[in-house]
Write a structure and sequence with these properties.
Layout lengths: L2 E9 L4 E7 L2 E6 L7 E5 L4 E4 L1 E6 L12 H10 L2 E6 L10 H14 L3 E4 L15 H6 L6 E2 L9 H12 L4 E4 L12 E2 L2 H6 L3 E2 L1 H18 L2 E4 L5 H12 L4 E5 L1 H5 L21 H13 L4 E2 L8 H4 L16 H9 L3 H16 L16 E11 L18 E11 L2 E5 L2 E2 L2
Parallel strand pairs: 1-4, 1-5, 6-7, 7-8, 9-10, 10-13, 11-12, 13-14, 14-15
Antiparallel strand pairs: 1-2, 2-3, 5-16, 16-17, 17-18, 18-19
Helix pairs in contact: 4-6, 6-7, 7-9
Amino acid sequence: MTAYLITNVSVVGGEPIDLLIRDGVVAAVGDGLAADDATVIDATGLVALPGLVDLHTHLREPGREDAETVESGSRAAALGGYTAVCAMANTSPVADTAGVVEQVWRLGREAGLVDVQPIGAVTVGLAGERLAELGAMADSAAGVRIFSDDGHCVADPRLMRRALEYVKAFDGVIAQHAEEPRLTEGAQMHEGEVSTRLGLTGWPAVAEEAIIARDVLLAEHVGSRLHVCHVSTAGSVEVLRQAKARGVRVTAEVTPHHLLLTDAKAESYDPVFKVNPPLRTAADIAALREALAEGVIDIIATDHAPHAVEDKECEWAYARPGMLGLETALSIALDVFGPRWDLIAERMSRTPARIAGLAGHGLDPAPGVPANLTLVDPAARRLIEPAEMASRSRNTPYARMTLPGRIVATFLRGEPTVLDGKAVK
C-alpha cells in the first residue's frame, strides 16, 4: 500500500498543515512532516474534508444497468468527493431480501471506489402491503440498518408503525418518502402559481407535510428512529422543528436541487427539471437553507437518480422524475453556503455517517483515523458538461452551468480513487 504525504492542506478550513497517510489510516498530522517512501501531494490552497457520505443514492443495479451500475455510480460518487453511499432499494428485483442487498453490497466491494451500503425496502416489492424481510436483511453480510420504500410512501399508518417497532430492536431507521398518494395523483409539478399558469396538475405541499406530521407522531409513540427523505417545503421544516423540540428521534435530509432550483424551471418544459418531490418556491428554498444551517434539517443527500435517455428526453408528462447529483453536490453546497467548511463537513459527512452507522466514515483527519477524505480546490470553477460525467446517464439540471469548487483527490482507506480530478480506475 502506497504512503502519501499531503502537504500544506487546510483541514476543514483550518491553518495549512501536513497529513501523512500510511497503511490505510492517517499516520501523522503536523508541520514539516517527511517520509522518504511517501508520494508527495502538494495541497497548497486545497481543503481536506472527511470523505463525503450520501444517504440517498440510486444505483439502479440490478435491473436498470442502462441507466447506472454500481460501478459507474461509485465512480461518479468518488469524483464528487464521496467515500460512502447508501443505495436505495427500488431496483429490479427490489432490494427486499437478504440475497438482493448482499448482491448490491458485493458489487460495491468489487468496484472498490466507495463503500456501498444497501438500503433495504420496507415492504415487499415496494407495494406497501406487507413488511419485507427486515430482520434477514439486517442480519445479512450487508448489515442493513436503513429501510426505505423511496419513490413510494409507506402510506398505511398501521404498517408504518409496525416497521418502526420492528427496527427498534436493532436500532434501525425507517427512511420515509413523505407523499400522501391520494393528494398527488396525476401531479406533474409543485401546486402553485406556476402550475396554474402552465395548466399542469399540482403536487401540493401539504401532501408531504401531512405524512411527516403523522410519522413523527408514530415515531414518538414507538420511540423509534425516523428519517425523512428529501424535505422540500417550509411547512415540513416547521413540523420537524416542533418534533425535534419534543425530543422525537427524527432526522431529515434536503437535496442540493431543492436548495437551489425553483418551480419556475418547469416553464421550460424541460423534463430534466421534473423531480419527486417537485421543485418548490423561493420561499421554500429560503426556509430549507435556514433549517439546514441551524440543524433542523440534518444533512444534504443527493437523491442521485440517473435515467436512461428515453426516460427523460420525452414529453414532460411521460418523463421519469429524478436528477443526477453525486458529481455536483459539493459545488451546490459551496454555491449556497460559501466556504463554511465545518457546516459542509457536518451536513455532508459527519452526520450522514452517524445516521447510517458507517464506522470509519465522517471522521476528520487525525492520527489513527481511517484515511477516508477528499481534497477540494475552493478557488476553482468548472463548467458542467454532461458528456464528461461518469454516470451512465446525462440528466443533470446543471448542464452548462459554471459551479464553484473542484474535487482534486478522494481517498478510500488510504487508497486514492481520484487524483488530479480524475478517477484512478
